[in-house]
Known about the structure:
This protein is an alpha/beta fold. Helices cover about 30% and strands about 20% of the residues.
Amino acid sequence: MIIKNVRILGGEPVDIRVADGEIAEIGQGLEGPETVDGGGAIALPGLVDLHTHLREPGREDAETVQTGTQSAARGGYTAVHAMANTSPVADTAGVVEQVWRLGREFAHCDVHPVGAVTVGLEGKQLAELGAMADSAARVRVFSDDGKCVDDAVLMRRALEYVKAFDGVIAQHAQEPRLTSGAQMNEGVISGRLGLTGWPAVAEEAIIARDCLLAAHVGSRLHICHVSTAGSVEIIRWAKSKGWNVTCEVTPHHLLLTDDLVEESPVGAYNPIYKVNPPLRTRADVEALRAALADGTIDIVATDHAPHPVEDKETEWSAAAMGMVGLETALSVVQEAMVETGLLDWAGVAERMSVVPARIGRLGGQGQPLEVGAPANITLYDPSARTEVDPSAFASKSRNTPYEGMTLPGRVVATFLRGRATVLEGKLV
Length: 428
Ligand SMILES: [Zn+2]
Protein backbone atom coordinates (compact mmCIF):
# COMPACT_ATOMS: atom_id res chain seq x y z
CA MET A 1 0.00 0.00 0.00
CA ILE A 2 1.16 3.52 -0.79
CA ILE A 3 0.14 6.52 1.34
CA LYS A 4 0.46 9.40 -1.13
CA ASN A 5 1.25 13.05 -0.47
CA VAL A 6 1.88 13.41 3.25
CA ARG A 7 4.23 15.74 5.10
CA ILE A 8 6.20 13.89 7.81
CA LEU A 9 6.24 16.17 10.90
CA GLY A 10 5.09 18.98 8.61
CA GLY A 11 8.02 18.66 6.17
CA GLU A 12 8.05 18.37 2.37
CA PRO A 13 5.41 16.17 0.67
CA VAL A 14 6.39 12.50 0.27
CA ASP A 15 4.81 9.11 -0.36
CA ILE A 16 5.13 6.22 2.11
CA ARG A 17 5.10 2.59 1.02
CA VAL A 18 3.85 0.19 3.67
CA ALA A 19 4.52 -3.54 3.54
CA ASP A 20 4.11 -6.25 6.19
CA GLY A 21 3.07 -3.66 8.77
CA GLU A 22 6.26 -1.65 8.38
CA ILE A 23 7.39 1.43 6.52
CA ALA A 24 9.16 -0.07 3.50
CA GLU A 25 10.05 3.06 1.51
CA ILE A 26 9.73 6.83 1.71
CA GLY A 27 10.06 8.81 -1.51
CA GLN A 28 8.35 10.69 -4.28
CA GLY A 29 6.18 9.34 -7.08
CA LEU A 30 5.77 5.90 -5.48
CA GLU A 31 3.17 3.75 -7.22
CA GLY A 32 1.37 0.56 -6.26
CA PRO A 33 -1.88 -1.34 -6.66
CA GLU A 34 -3.43 0.14 -3.50
CA THR A 35 -3.11 3.82 -2.62
CA VAL A 36 -4.47 6.18 0.02
CA ASP A 37 -4.42 9.91 -0.79
CA GLY A 38 -3.02 11.82 2.17
CA GLY A 39 -4.02 15.15 0.63
CA GLY A 40 -0.98 16.93 2.03
CA ALA A 41 -1.82 16.00 5.63
CA ILE A 42 0.85 16.02 8.33
CA ALA A 43 2.10 12.52 9.19
CA LEU A 44 2.90 11.88 12.84
CA PRO A 45 3.96 8.65 14.52
CA GLY A 46 0.78 7.06 15.93
CA LEU A 47 -0.12 8.79 19.18
CA VAL A 48 0.38 6.98 22.50
CA ASP A 49 -1.71 7.77 25.58
CA LEU A 50 -0.22 7.00 28.97
CA HIS A 51 -3.49 7.73 30.78
CA THR A 52 -6.84 6.42 29.50
CA HIS A 53 -9.85 5.15 31.42
CA LEU A 54 -11.49 2.40 29.35
CA ARG A 55 -13.88 1.48 32.22
CA GLU A 56 -14.02 -2.22 31.33
CA PRO A 57 -14.51 -4.38 33.34
CA GLY A 58 -17.30 -2.97 35.50
CA ARG A 59 -18.58 0.24 33.93
CA GLU A 60 -19.42 -0.85 30.41
CA ASP A 61 -22.27 1.68 30.49
CA ALA A 62 -19.61 4.43 30.34
CA GLU A 63 -17.06 2.85 27.99
CA THR A 64 -15.71 -0.49 26.82
CA VAL A 65 -12.35 -1.57 25.47
CA GLN A 66 -13.97 -1.57 22.04
CA THR A 67 -15.59 1.90 22.17
CA GLY A 68 -12.70 3.49 24.07
CA THR A 69 -10.17 2.30 21.52
CA GLN A 70 -12.44 3.36 18.66
CA SER A 71 -12.42 6.78 20.29
CA ALA A 72 -8.63 6.56 20.54
CA ALA A 73 -8.23 5.63 16.88
CA ARG A 74 -10.43 8.56 15.85
CA GLY A 75 -8.16 10.80 17.91
CA GLY A 76 -5.06 9.49 16.10
CA TYR A 77 -3.90 7.07 18.82
CA THR A 78 -2.34 3.69 18.09
CA ALA A 79 -1.76 2.71 21.74
CA VAL A 80 -3.35 3.49 25.08
CA HIS A 81 -2.58 2.60 28.68
CA ALA A 82 -5.77 1.48 30.41
CA MET A 83 -5.97 2.77 33.98
CA ALA A 84 -6.48 0.31 36.82
CA ASN A 85 -9.53 1.81 38.58
CA THR A 86 -11.98 -0.64 37.05
CA SER A 87 -14.35 -2.98 38.86
CA PRO A 88 -12.78 -5.32 39.78
CA VAL A 89 -9.63 -3.23 40.18
CA ALA A 90 -6.73 -4.28 37.93
CA ASP A 91 -4.59 -5.33 40.89
CA THR A 92 -3.84 -8.96 39.96
CA ALA A 93 -2.30 -10.79 37.01
CA GLY A 94 -5.77 -12.21 36.30
CA VAL A 95 -7.48 -8.84 35.83
CA VAL A 96 -4.67 -7.22 33.81
CA GLU A 97 -4.61 -10.29 31.55
CA GLN A 98 -8.38 -10.00 31.13
CA VAL A 99 -8.02 -6.37 29.96
CA TRP A 100 -5.05 -7.32 27.77
CA ARG A 101 -7.08 -10.13 26.15
CA LEU A 102 -10.05 -7.80 25.56
CA GLY A 103 -7.59 -5.51 23.84
CA ARG A 104 -6.29 -8.29 21.60
CA GLU A 105 -9.84 -9.26 20.65
CA PHE A 106 -11.78 -6.01 20.33
CA ALA A 107 -9.41 -3.07 20.29
CA HIS A 108 -8.76 -0.58 17.50
CA CYS A 109 -5.36 0.25 18.98
CA ASP A 110 -2.88 -1.48 21.28
CA VAL A 111 -4.09 -1.70 24.89
CA HIS A 112 -1.55 -1.81 27.70
CA PRO A 113 -3.11 -2.36 31.11
CA VAL A 114 -1.85 -0.27 34.01
CA GLY A 115 -1.60 -2.26 37.24
CA ALA A 116 -2.82 -0.93 40.58
CA VAL A 117 -0.11 -0.08 43.12
CA THR A 118 -2.17 -1.18 46.11
CA VAL A 119 -4.81 -3.88 46.60
CA GLY A 120 -8.23 -2.49 45.67
CA LEU A 121 -6.68 1.01 45.34
CA GLU A 122 -7.10 1.14 49.11
CA GLY A 123 -3.60 2.38 49.87
CA LYS A 124 -3.02 -0.27 52.56
CA GLN A 125 -1.15 -3.16 50.99
CA LEU A 126 1.00 -3.47 47.86
CA ALA A 127 -0.66 -5.29 44.97
CA GLU A 128 1.05 -8.18 43.13
CA LEU A 129 3.30 -5.88 41.10
CA GLY A 130 5.75 -8.62 40.11
CA ALA A 131 3.02 -11.04 39.02
CA MET A 132 1.44 -8.31 36.85
CA ALA A 133 4.83 -7.52 35.33
CA ASP A 134 5.42 -11.21 34.55
CA SER A 135 1.90 -11.77 33.18
CA ALA A 136 0.98 -11.89 29.50
CA ALA A 137 0.09 -8.18 29.82
CA ARG A 138 3.74 -7.39 30.76
CA VAL A 139 2.70 -4.42 32.91
CA ARG A 140 5.33 -1.71 33.33
CA VAL A 141 3.18 1.22 34.50
CA PHE A 142 1.55 1.03 37.93
CA SER A 143 -0.90 3.56 39.32
CA ASP A 144 -3.70 3.95 41.84
CA ASP A 145 -4.95 6.80 39.64
CA GLY A 146 -8.14 8.33 40.92
CA LYS A 147 -6.54 7.95 44.34
CA CYS A 148 -3.18 9.01 45.69
CA VAL A 149 -0.71 6.56 47.22
CA ASP A 150 -0.49 8.82 50.25
CA ASP A 151 1.32 6.47 52.65
CA ALA A 152 5.01 7.37 52.27
CA VAL A 153 6.20 3.92 53.33
CA LEU A 154 4.00 2.16 50.77
CA MET A 155 5.10 4.61 48.08
CA ARG A 156 8.74 3.93 48.93
CA ARG A 157 8.21 0.16 48.78
CA ALA A 158 6.39 0.42 45.44
CA LEU A 159 9.21 2.50 43.96
CA GLU A 160 11.76 -0.04 45.21
CA TYR A 161 9.78 -3.02 43.95
CA VAL A 162 9.36 -1.90 40.33
CA LYS A 163 13.10 -1.34 39.85
CA ALA A 164 13.50 -5.11 39.36
CA PHE A 165 11.59 -5.01 36.06
CA ASP A 166 12.16 -1.38 35.00
CA GLY A 167 8.63 -0.38 35.94
CA VAL A 168 7.37 3.08 36.84
CA ILE A 169 4.97 4.33 39.50
CA ALA A 170 2.53 6.89 38.08
CA GLN A 171 1.31 8.95 41.00
CA HIS A 172 -2.03 10.76 41.22
CA ALA A 173 -0.73 13.55 43.44
CA GLN A 174 -3.52 14.57 45.78
CA GLU A 175 -2.99 14.84 49.53
CA PRO A 176 -6.30 13.41 50.73
CA ARG A 177 -6.71 15.35 53.98
CA LEU A 178 -6.05 18.68 52.26
CA THR A 179 -8.69 17.88 49.64
CA SER A 180 -11.41 16.39 51.81
CA GLY A 181 -14.70 17.36 50.16
CA ALA A 182 -12.88 19.56 47.64
CA GLN A 183 -14.96 20.66 44.65
CA MET A 184 -12.83 23.05 42.59
CA ASN A 185 -9.55 24.97 42.58
CA GLU A 186 -9.07 26.88 45.84
CA GLY A 187 -8.93 30.57 45.02
CA VAL A 188 -10.94 33.71 44.46
CA ILE A 189 -13.65 31.91 42.52
CA SER A 190 -14.17 29.00 44.92
CA GLY A 191 -14.51 31.60 47.67
CA ARG A 192 -17.10 33.55 45.73
CA LEU A 193 -19.09 30.44 44.77
CA GLY A 194 -18.91 28.89 48.23
CA LEU A 195 -17.46 25.62 46.93
CA THR A 196 -14.86 23.77 49.01
CA GLY A 197 -11.43 24.61 47.62
CA TRP A 198 -8.79 22.23 46.30
CA PRO A 199 -5.51 23.93 47.13
CA ALA A 200 -2.50 23.73 44.82
CA VAL A 201 -0.41 22.69 47.81
CA ALA A 202 -2.32 19.39 48.02
CA GLU A 203 -0.79 18.42 44.68
CA GLU A 204 2.59 20.07 45.17
CA ALA A 205 3.30 18.54 48.60
CA ILE A 206 2.89 14.99 47.26
CA ILE A 207 4.99 15.73 44.18
CA ALA A 208 7.81 17.15 46.31
CA ARG A 209 7.72 14.16 48.67
CA ASP A 210 7.66 11.63 45.84
CA CYS A 211 10.51 13.25 43.92
CA LEU A 212 12.59 12.98 47.10
CA LEU A 213 11.52 9.36 47.60
CA ALA A 214 12.29 8.43 43.98
CA ALA A 215 15.74 10.00 44.32
CA HIS A 216 16.33 8.24 47.64
CA VAL A 217 15.62 4.77 46.26
CA GLY A 218 16.90 5.47 42.73
CA SER A 219 13.68 4.53 40.99
CA ARG A 220 11.44 5.84 38.20
CA LEU A 221 8.56 8.15 39.12
CA HIS A 222 5.92 9.57 36.80
CA ILE A 223 3.51 12.29 37.92
CA CYS A 224 0.02 12.17 36.42
CA HIS A 225 -1.86 15.28 35.25
CA VAL A 226 0.28 18.10 36.67
CA SER A 227 -1.99 21.13 37.08
CA THR A 228 -0.24 23.95 38.96
CA ALA A 229 2.61 26.38 38.39
CA GLY A 230 4.13 25.28 41.71
CA SER A 231 4.18 21.62 40.61
CA VAL A 232 6.12 22.66 37.53
CA GLU A 233 8.72 24.45 39.66
CA ILE A 234 9.22 21.39 41.88
CA ILE A 235 9.59 19.05 38.91
CA ARG A 236 12.00 21.45 37.21
CA TRP A 237 14.11 21.36 40.37
CA ALA A 238 13.95 17.54 40.59
CA LYS A 239 15.03 17.20 36.97
CA SER A 240 17.91 19.64 37.51
CA LYS A 241 19.20 17.15 40.10
CA GLY A 242 19.22 14.42 37.46
CA TRP A 243 16.46 12.45 39.18
CA ASN A 244 14.41 9.99 37.16
CA VAL A 245 11.11 11.90 37.21
CA THR A 246 8.70 12.38 34.32
CA CYS A 247 5.29 13.98 34.19
CA GLU A 248 2.27 14.65 32.04
CA VAL A 249 -0.26 17.40 31.46
CA THR A 250 -3.79 16.92 30.10
CA PRO A 251 -5.13 18.85 27.10
CA HIS A 252 -7.85 20.43 29.27
CA HIS A 253 -5.34 21.81 31.75
CA LEU A 254 -3.56 23.46 28.81
CA LEU A 255 -6.70 25.29 27.69
CA LEU A 256 -9.39 25.70 30.35
CA THR A 257 -9.49 27.71 33.58
CA ASP A 258 -11.43 27.66 36.85
CA ASP A 259 -13.48 30.75 36.02
CA LEU A 260 -15.57 28.52 33.72
CA VAL A 261 -17.19 27.15 36.87
CA GLU A 262 -18.60 30.62 37.51
CA GLU A 263 -19.33 31.75 33.98
CA SER A 264 -19.34 29.74 30.76
CA PRO A 265 -21.30 29.22 27.55
CA VAL A 266 -23.18 26.44 29.37
CA GLY A 267 -23.92 28.46 32.49
CA ALA A 268 -22.57 28.52 36.03
CA TYR A 269 -21.87 25.43 38.16
CA ASN A 270 -21.96 23.19 35.07
CA PRO A 271 -20.36 19.86 36.13
CA ILE A 272 -18.97 19.39 32.63
CA TYR A 273 -16.04 21.41 34.07
CA LYS A 274 -15.69 19.24 37.18
CA VAL A 275 -12.47 17.29 36.92
CA ASN A 276 -9.68 15.86 39.08
CA PRO A 277 -7.31 17.67 39.43
CA PRO A 278 -9.51 20.75 39.02
CA LEU A 279 -9.17 23.41 36.34
CA ARG A 280 -6.77 26.02 37.68
CA THR A 281 -6.02 29.69 36.95
CA ARG A 282 -4.79 31.45 33.82
CA ALA A 283 -1.33 31.79 35.43
CA ASP A 284 -1.21 28.03 35.98
CA VAL A 285 -2.21 27.38 32.35
CA GLU A 286 0.57 29.69 31.15
CA ALA A 287 3.12 27.90 33.37
CA LEU A 288 1.98 24.47 32.13
CA ARG A 289 2.28 25.53 28.49
CA ALA A 290 5.77 26.95 29.04
CA ALA A 291 6.83 23.78 30.88
CA LEU A 292 5.52 21.51 28.12
CA ALA A 293 7.40 23.62 25.59
CA ASP A 294 10.72 23.54 27.47
CA GLY A 295 10.50 19.82 28.32
CA THR A 296 9.94 20.15 32.07
CA ILE A 297 6.59 18.49 31.37
CA ASP A 298 7.46 15.44 29.25
CA ILE A 299 4.18 14.46 27.65
CA VAL A 300 0.51 15.15 27.02
CA ALA A 301 -1.82 12.44 28.37
CA THR A 302 -5.56 12.63 27.94
CA ASP A 303 -6.95 11.32 31.27
CA HIS A 304 -9.92 10.34 29.06
CA ALA A 305 -12.57 9.81 31.75
CA PRO A 306 -15.92 8.75 30.30
CA HIS A 307 -19.03 9.09 32.47
CA PRO A 308 -22.67 8.38 31.58
CA VAL A 309 -25.07 11.32 31.43
CA GLU A 310 -26.71 10.57 34.78
CA ASP A 311 -23.35 10.83 36.57
CA LYS A 312 -22.51 14.23 35.03
CA GLU A 313 -25.84 16.02 34.50
CA THR A 314 -26.63 16.44 38.15
CA GLU A 315 -25.87 19.08 40.77
CA TRP A 316 -22.22 20.13 40.98
CA SER A 317 -21.38 18.54 44.33
CA ALA A 318 -22.88 15.16 43.35
CA ALA A 319 -21.43 15.00 39.83
CA ALA A 320 -18.61 12.66 38.84
CA MET A 321 -15.19 14.15 38.07
CA GLY A 322 -13.68 13.81 34.62
CA MET A 323 -13.89 14.57 30.92
CA VAL A 324 -13.55 12.52 27.75
CA GLY A 325 -10.52 13.59 25.76
CA LEU A 326 -9.21 11.12 23.19
CA GLU A 327 -11.07 12.54 20.19
CA THR A 328 -10.16 16.18 20.86
CA ALA A 329 -6.63 15.90 22.30
CA LEU A 330 -4.64 16.70 19.19
CA SER A 331 -6.88 19.65 18.29
CA VAL A 332 -6.60 21.10 21.78
CA VAL A 333 -2.82 20.72 21.70
CA GLN A 334 -2.76 22.45 18.32
CA GLU A 335 -4.83 25.30 19.75
CA ALA A 336 -2.83 25.67 22.97
CA MET A 337 0.70 24.87 21.79
CA VAL A 338 1.07 25.03 18.01
CA GLU A 339 -1.09 28.04 17.15
CA THR A 340 0.64 29.92 19.96
CA GLY A 341 4.07 29.13 18.47
CA LEU A 342 5.21 27.15 21.52
CA LEU A 343 5.62 23.80 19.72
CA ASP A 344 6.16 22.62 16.15
CA TRP A 345 4.88 19.27 14.86
CA ALA A 346 8.13 17.50 15.72
CA GLY A 347 7.62 18.73 19.27
CA VAL A 348 4.04 17.46 19.29
CA ALA A 349 5.20 14.03 18.03
CA GLU A 350 7.78 13.85 20.84
CA ARG A 351 5.25 14.69 23.53
CA MET A 352 2.28 12.68 22.27
CA SER A 353 3.99 9.59 20.82
CA VAL A 354 7.74 9.13 21.22
CA VAL A 355 8.16 9.96 24.92
CA PRO A 356 4.93 8.38 26.23
CA ALA A 357 5.94 5.14 24.49
CA ARG A 358 9.37 5.39 26.11
CA ILE A 359 7.94 5.97 29.59
CA GLY A 360 5.59 2.99 29.13
CA ARG A 361 8.47 0.89 27.70
CA LEU A 362 6.49 0.07 24.54
CA GLY A 363 8.89 -1.29 21.95
CA GLY A 364 6.71 -1.13 18.85
CA GLN A 365 5.21 2.33 19.36
CA GLY A 366 6.41 5.91 19.30
CA GLN A 367 9.09 5.34 16.69
CA PRO A 368 10.11 7.99 14.16
CA LEU A 369 8.55 7.57 10.71
CA GLU A 370 11.54 5.96 9.00
CA VAL A 371 12.11 2.93 6.80
CA GLY A 372 11.95 -0.20 8.96
CA ALA A 373 9.74 1.33 11.65
CA PRO A 374 6.30 -0.14 12.39
CA ALA A 375 3.71 1.64 10.23
CA ASN A 376 1.91 3.32 13.12
CA ILE A 377 0.94 6.57 11.44
CA THR A 378 -1.49 9.39 12.15
CA LEU A 379 -2.50 11.72 9.31
CA TYR A 380 -3.68 15.12 10.51
CA ASP A 381 -5.00 18.15 8.64
CA PRO A 382 -4.18 21.21 10.76
CA SER A 383 -6.01 23.60 8.41
CA ALA A 384 -9.43 22.05 9.10
CA ARG A 385 -11.77 23.74 11.54
CA THR A 386 -14.26 21.52 13.34
CA GLU A 387 -17.16 22.33 15.61
CA VAL A 388 -17.05 19.75 18.38
CA ASP A 389 -20.15 17.55 18.17
CA PRO A 390 -20.23 14.97 20.98
CA SER A 391 -22.96 12.97 19.23
CA ALA A 392 -20.35 12.12 16.59
CA PHE A 393 -17.91 10.66 19.15
CA ALA A 394 -17.02 6.99 19.00
CA SER A 395 -16.80 7.06 22.80
CA LYS A 396 -19.87 5.78 24.64
CA SER A 397 -19.78 8.93 26.76
CA ARG A 398 -20.34 12.55 25.81
CA ASN A 399 -18.86 14.49 28.72
CA THR A 400 -16.71 16.91 26.75
CA PRO A 401 -16.15 20.52 27.83
CA TYR A 402 -15.65 21.54 24.18
CA GLU A 403 -19.19 20.95 22.86
CA GLY A 404 -20.02 23.63 20.31
CA MET A 405 -16.49 25.05 20.32
CA THR A 406 -14.65 25.31 17.02
CA LEU A 407 -11.25 23.66 17.35
CA PRO A 408 -8.47 23.53 14.77
CA GLY A 409 -7.43 20.40 12.93
CA ARG A 410 -8.85 17.01 12.13
CA VAL A 411 -7.50 13.46 12.23
CA VAL A 412 -7.78 12.24 8.64
CA ALA A 413 -6.48 8.69 9.04
CA THR A 414 -4.85 6.38 11.55
CA PHE A 415 -2.81 3.29 10.67
CA LEU A 416 -1.94 0.56 13.18
CA ARG A 417 0.96 -1.54 11.83
CA GLY A 418 -0.12 -0.62 8.31
CA ARG A 419 -3.80 -1.42 8.80
CA ALA A 420 -6.16 1.58 8.60
CA THR A 421 -8.28 2.02 11.74
CA VAL A 422 -9.57 5.42 10.55
CA LEU A 423 -9.88 6.71 6.97
CA GLU A 424 -11.32 10.08 5.91
CA GLY A 425 -12.03 10.75 9.56
CA LYS A 426 -14.23 7.65 9.91
CA LEU A 427 -13.65 4.35 11.66
CA VAL A 428 -12.75 1.50 9.36
ZN1 LIG B 1 -5.84 10.95 38.21
